[in-house]
Automatic annotation (TrEMBL), chain A:
<dbReference type="GO" id="GO:0008033">
    <property type="term" value="P:tRNA processing"/>
</dbReference>
<keyword id="KW-0479">Metal-binding</keyword>
<protein>
    <submittedName>
        <fullName>SHS2 domain-containing protein</fullName>
    </submittedName>
</protein>
<feature type="domain" description="Archease">
    <location>
        <begin position="33"/>
        <end position="163"/>
    </location>
</feature>
<dbReference type="InterPro" id="IPR036820">
    <property type="entry name" value="Archease_dom_sf"/>
</dbReference>
<dbReference type="Pfam" id="PF01951">
    <property type="entry name" value="Archease"/>
</dbReference>
<keyword id="KW-0819">tRNA processing</keyword>
<keyword id="KW-0106">Calcium</keyword>
<dbReference type="GO" id="GO:0046872">
    <property type="term" value="F:metal ion binding"/>
</dbReference>
From TrEMBL, chain B:
<dbReference type="GO" id="GO:0170057">
    <property type="term" value="F:RNA ligase (GTP) activity"/>
</dbReference>
<dbReference type="GO" id="GO:0006396">
    <property type="term" value="P:RNA processing"/>
</dbReference>
<feature type="binding site">
    <location>
        <position position="96"/>
    </location>
    <ligand>
        <name>Mn(2+) 1</name>
    </ligand>
</feature>
<dbReference type="InterPro" id="IPR001233">
    <property type="entry name" value="RtcB"/>
</dbReference>
<dbReference type="GO" id="GO:0003972">
    <property type="term" value="F:RNA ligase (ATP) activity"/>
</dbReference>
<keyword id="KW-0464">Manganese</keyword>
<feature type="binding site">
    <location>
        <position position="325"/>
    </location>
    <ligand>
        <name>Mn(2+) 2</name>
    </ligand>
</feature>
<feature type="binding site">
    <location>
        <position position="235"/>
    </location>
    <ligand>
        <name>Mn(2+) 2</name>
    </ligand>
</feature>
<keyword id="KW-0547">Nucleotide-binding</keyword>
């Protein structure tokens, strides 16, 4: 069963296509979740593969805290190479989770660009602060129920994340 | 789970018959019919996948608390023989490598302690970093972190966290051999920098409990337990370091399996032969994470003791036992009368050595290993003892096991209301995440009594004591 949006019920942020740093995120509605006994299934959708990755990341960080409360004031760039789209999704989500923990940050807005096998990504967020509501820590993105595919006009990226 | 798909071998043992043409080893499921009926069919699919991996010895098994996981089911046990092409699987260990429970017995009884539970809960909540985004006060440089990965709980004791007496009652005597910090990525090490001595999130907890009922007086005596006694259980793992090692090796081993021609029905089973370079690299990194988890629980033990003596000056907390439930361990088992070295994966399953096992501390050697089945914050937990003729590579259940998804729980319960309801029952919950409390609602878990009973009836471990929660610090 799929749940539209809402681990916390609020809208997350997506980056506007103009790419400007200031005010570059607006509320988005394209991430969602699916059922799993012990953990959580996340889904990202978009008009492009890259947008599906961006909203999948929002689904992941939407488990951690309400994203509309996170100020996208600091950006972190992550690059990696991967030819397999599905492994690229898991690799990227796990790099984001690793960076967030390393830097003590939470991310709310994402930008993905791809040139063949090279993925150039940027995550926007801020350091944890006391008044950010605590959700649940995501330990990692798994290869279970992992799927990246285009259905009709939309791309969809999904997997189970371990919490 | 549709029981018509299974064949019952014994009252608490079932098998999944092979379909025509299906090539896999045997699947065995431990538990009574009510527990198995409540399991998702995905458990069967996942354990059947495990049974298709190379070098499996005997059967792929599920414990009575099994539920749908990723790759392996939670509550999955599988042993592999390296000499027969057996594999090591990152998916068979999980992200939270060496997640486990440290159980402490106190010299306090409920009647001495109950009056100060509110202060105790507040003080523990201040002292124990818990929940997402929380860091500990201990910050390690790379050299110190290498020492943790080699030294485990020994490192922590050397730094003044706890005493040498604790080490006797930790699996592997507090330090597993074969850790190779060089096999651990820089990102994994960076993730751990601020996470030593932290509890984590999700189903992790620190719980003050009272011994409510003794089932086995002789074993209870050996374990130093009596009714009315206060215990503390600490449930957590290897934190960011283990999570990142799991992450790093998942993709690496998935690619290795593909390259080596190992068919993976689910890529999360990511594995490589134990004897392959990739397999050896993972084992070195996994052992480093195990030591990190043992050190982490040792630090949390020290912090807990400090709080207890602040609130109860006469308090003394001794380690009853520390046992992990997300590991792969090289162990010697008797197979058809022959001693064989096996790589036993326990994912959401606890090691449960029976009486006489040489790896047990002298105090427990005659009676068997303490085993903890951690229940929900509203129901209770069990301490059991490893059975003599455990048929599952000396493995047992590790918890109540989830009965519904986190989303279902979120839809059904509100964190604040649950905290208030449990307070009415005399259970004090401290948390930074009301969402986490709702997801971990007692009603979201299986009946822990049924799990413990099935564990005993299946011959995996015997019940010794039932513990009721009194104060809970939720991650």
């Amino acid at each position: 069963m799929e749940k539209q949006r809402g681990n916390f019920g609020e809208a997350a942020w997506v980056r506007l296509s103009n790419g400007s740093k200031d005010n570059s995120c607006v509320p988005g509605q394209t991430s969602s979740y699916f059922e799993h006994d012990a953990d959580i299934g996340i889904i990202g959708r978009g008009d492009t593969l890259e947008q599906a990755f961006e909203t999948a990341a929002q689904a992941v960080f939407g488990i951690v805290t309400p994203l509309d409360k996170v100020q996208p004031q600091t950006s972190v760039k992550i690059e990696f190479e991967e030819s397999d789209h599905e492994l690229a999704l898991v690799t990227w989500l796990n790099l984001l989770l690793g960076k967030a923990r390393e830097l003590g940050m939470v991310f709310s807005c994402f930008h993905v660009q791809r040139r063949e096998n090279l993925w150039s990504t940027e995550a926007f967020g801020e350091k944890w602060r006391e008044d950010l509501e605590r959700g649940v820590e995501v330990k990692g993105a798994t290869l279970t129920m992992l799927s990246v595919k285009k259905t009709g006009a939309m791309w969809e990226a999904r997997c189970i994340v371990d919490v | 789970m549709n029981l018509e798909r299974l064949r019952q071998l014994q009252p608490y043992l079932w098998t999944l018959p092979r379909t025509p043409g299906e090539e896999r080893a045997e699947v065995l499921l431990y538990g009574g019919a009510p527990l198995l009926v409540s399991m998702d069919d995905k458990v069967l699919e996942q354990i059947a996948n495990v049974a298709s991996l190379p070098g499996l010895v005997g059967a792929a098994m599920t414990m009575p608390d099994a539920h749908w996981g990723y790759g392996f089911p939670i509550g999955g046990v599988a042993a592999f023989d390296a000499e027969q092409g057996g594999v090591i699987s990152a998916g068979g260990v999980g992200f939270d490598i060496s997640c486990g429970i440290r159980c402490l017995r106190s010299n306090l009884d409920l009647e001495d302690a109950v009056e100060h539970f509110p202060e105790l809960g507040n003080a523990l909540f201040r002292a124990i970093p818990a929940g997402v985004g929380e860091e500990g006060e201990i910050k390690l440089n790379p050299e110190q972190l290498d020492q943790v990965m080699h030294g485990g709980a020994h490192w922590a004791v050397q730094q003044g966290y706890g005493t040498a007496a604790d080490l006797d009652y930790i699996e592997e005597h507090g330090r597993v051999a074969g850790a190779i910090p060089d096999n651990v990525s820089e990102l994994a090490k960076k993730r751990q920098r601020g996470e030593m001595g932290t509890l984590g999130s999700g189903n992790h907890y620190l719980e003050v409990q009272v011994v409510d009922r003794i089932f086995d007086p002789a074993a209870a005596l050996a374990f130093g337990l009596h009714e009315g006694q206060i215990l503390v259980s600490i449930h957590c793992g290897s934190r960011g370091l283990g999570h990142q090692i799991g992450t790093d090796y998942l993709v690496l081993l998935a690619k290795a399996a593909s390259r080596l021609g190992i068919h993976l029905p689910d890529r999360e089973l990511a594995c490589a032969p134990v004897k392959s370079p990739e397999g050896q690299r993972y084992i070195g990194a996994m052992n480093a994470a195990i030591n990190c988890a043992l050190a982490n629980r040792q630090i949390l033990t020290h912090l807990t003791r400090s709080v207890f003596t602040e609130i109860y000056p006469q308090a003394a907390l001794e380690t009853l036992f520390d046992v992990s439930h997300n590991t792969c361990k090289a162990e010697t088992h008797q197979i058809d009368g022959e001693s064989r070295l096996l790589y036993v994966h326990r994912k959401g399953a606890t090691r449960a050595f029976g009486p006489g096992h040489p790896m047990l501390p002298e105090r427990y050697r005659q009676v068997g290993q303490p085993v903890v089945i951690g229940g929900s914050m509203g129901t209770g937990s069990y301490i059991l003892v490893g059975a003599s003729e455990n048929p599952a590579f000396a493995s047992s259940s590790h918890g109540a096991g989830r009965a519904m998804s986190r989303h279902q729980a979120l839809a059904r319960w509100k964190g604040r209301a649950l905290v208030d309801e449990l307070a009415q029952q005399g259970i004090l919950i401290h948390t930074r995440s009301m969402r986490g409390v709702a997801e971990e609602a007692p009603g979201a878990y299986k009946d822990v009594d049924l799990v413990a009973e099935a564990t005993e009836e299946a011959g995996l471990a015997r019940r010794v004591a039932f513990l009721r929660p009194k104060v809970c610090i939720k991650g």
